[in-house]
Amino acid sequence: MALKGDTMDFFAITSKHIHALNSNEKDLYNHIIRNMEEVKKSTVRDLALKCYVSPATIIRFLRKIGFSGYSDFIAILKYTDINMVENQNPFVVSQEDYQIEYLKNIYESVRVLDQAKVDKIIQILERKPRIVIMARGLNKSVGHYFEYIFSGLGFDVIFPEDHYFRKMLLNGIHSNDLVFFLSYGGEDEELIWDIEQLNIKSKATVVSITSANNNPVQNMSHINLYVFADQIQFNDIDMTSRISMIGIIELIAYKYMERET
């Protein structure tokens, strides 16, 4: 078991094993990441029932990703959760230590990127759909970058920044459009309403990029990609890094470029 003094957490332990997981094991991994608060309170039987597998399958999976058993897994998961809470304001640690955590967040975001989901997005992009970007707050900065990159790739990109423009656009979404929702927390009520209306009015594919924690935007999307970052509030302003989100967008763009050359 990795102890607190080893500065190990769930992601540090599992990152070196993710490449060896099959699709079913990746589903288990994703379930754990997205439901950490629930899983840390669950017995092995509870988790097995949630994932529609046997307890023996859960134990084999945990050993494959670096744990000696279920109690080891839960202990590390609880410690990881404590770290996540403590890092709400990461600057209580030294800048040098924060730089390490900053890089780990980018590394983990790229490491757990689901290539099957990326391939689905690329397949849709190859049909040259209109791309619509939905974002609010600090995520709008990512939206501008997204718009710049994919406009440069030859796509028709629409980025309605204003609330009323987004509302009007929802009436003109086509079923072959590709709609990206950028929301780190995934709990923005206005964007949740937008997705609800979009799913009612069209059959457009909804892709979201959010944090790994279970959230409404993630659950209402056809395809969700998740990223990691330390949540930072300063003077009541959200300053959580969006660099991992930008990295995922770039990787999608680069993979598309690779296919097209």
From TrEMBL:
Keyword check for Transcription regulation: yes
Keywords: DNA-binding, Transcription, Transcription regulation
Pfam families: HTH_6, SIS
CDD domains recorded: SIS_RpiR (cd05013)
GO BP term, example: carbohydrate derivative metabolic process
Segments forming domain SIS: 121-261
Record flagged with keyword DNA-binding: yes
GO function terms (MF aspect): carbohydrate derivative binding; DNA binding; DNA-binding transcription factor activity
Residue ranges of every copy of the HTH rpiR-type domain listed in the record: 8-84
Protein's name in the database: MurR/RpiR family transcriptional regulator
The organism of origin for this protein: Mesobacillus zeae
Organism ancestry: Bacteria, Bacillati, Bacillota, Bacilli, Bacillales
